[in-house]
Design brief:
Blueprint lengths: L3 H18 L1 E12 L6 H11 L4 E12 L6 E10 L3
Parallel strand pairs: 1-2
Antiparallel strand pairs: 1-3
Length: 86
């Protein structure tokens, strides 16, 4: 799959966002990719389960939107999750 680099980048950025914003588990997020991207909810979820199982909820909902953006680019539009208690 030629979108492996992008899957890895999305995974790493989600981890960074969780660390910076004290998000314990991601419950839902919306991602924008190019119309020709091979990123789909199913393969992204599988990738996250493999590489970031500790930051995603079991009921994770992913919404993929396709827009006219550069190839090999993804934009995280929104993210919802459980924050770390004080």
């Amino acid at each position: 799959m030629h979108d492996t680099f992008l899957l890895n980048k999305i995974s790493n950025v989600l981890k960074e966002i969780c660390n910076e914003n004290k998000i314990n588990r991601i419950e839902q997020f919306t991602l924008v990719v190019n119309h020709d991207s091979h990123i789909y909810e199913e393969n992204l979820l599988e990738h996250l389960k493999l590489h970031n199982p500790n930051i995603i909820s079991k009921e994770l909902r992913i919404e993929i939107q396709r827009e006219n953006i550069e190839q090999q680019t993804a934009i995280i539009k929104s993210i919802q999750g459980e924050t770390v208690g004080k």
